[in-house]
Amino acid sequence: MIKFCSLFSGSSGNALYISSGKTNILIDAGVSAKRIIQALESIGENASELSAVLVSHEHTDHTRGAGIISRKFDIPIYANENTWMCMEKQLGNIGINNRRCFNTGTEFELGDISIKTFPIPHDASEPVGFNFFLKNTKVTTATDIGHITKSLLESLYGSQLILLEANHDIEMLKVGPYPWNLKRRILGDSGHLSNEMAGKVVAYLAENGTSKFFLGHLSRENNFPELAYQTVLNALAEKNICAGRDVMLSVALRDRTSDVVEV
Ligand SMILES: [Zn+2]
Ligand SMILES: [Zn+2]
């Protein structure tokens, strides 16, 4: 059985937790180490028992607390080489034993959990999403998605639980306060995933067997939880899928720990 919890999710900072009971993994550490330690405590877990910190890409909303967590508890950080090169300075001194590298697209083991990374189109050096496998269970996390590709959909396919980005409402973003070049970046192929597109992806995956969904990495300025939820709910309803009855649909919040969900 895999336990999953979103500790923090949003453009202001991301940290997700996944555990088999034996292997405890932090996915991104984009808020302060102190807040991550407290959030773990609030769900009955201890940061000193983390097996690893995985980093999806070098943007600070994914890396802010990683260096301190690693040094304080002697925990290895896993990222691909390009991400390491870009985040090395922000992280501070990381012992050679705790500087672990994976190749995007390959599979590696952490205790009893197998991890497969897959590329994500986004404006970072080599951003990835993660598949976690324990026996027949597959859990996937994918945020900071500029656009959906066929290979990305294949990576999401067949998961029991997914945390997927629902970053912005397209209309809110267009009329919102961001300067035009930032709007263009977010809407572009290497930016972030809209609620509308997340709805399409969730509906497709729900039709194909995925039963638990978290929407994450919501923008503070261009989205709000009820809007993301309702947009995806509508996309599911179009396929006659009812959230709460047929699938679990939940919004991962920026400053509140989610329920711990088991699959
Ligand atoms: Zn990013
Ligand atoms: Zn991000």
Automatic annotation (TrEMBL):
Coiled coil: none annotated. Residues 12-192 form the Metallo-beta-lactamase domain. This is Phosphoribosyl 1,2-cyclic phosphodiesterase. It comes from the Bacteria. It comes from Anaerobacterium chartisolvens.
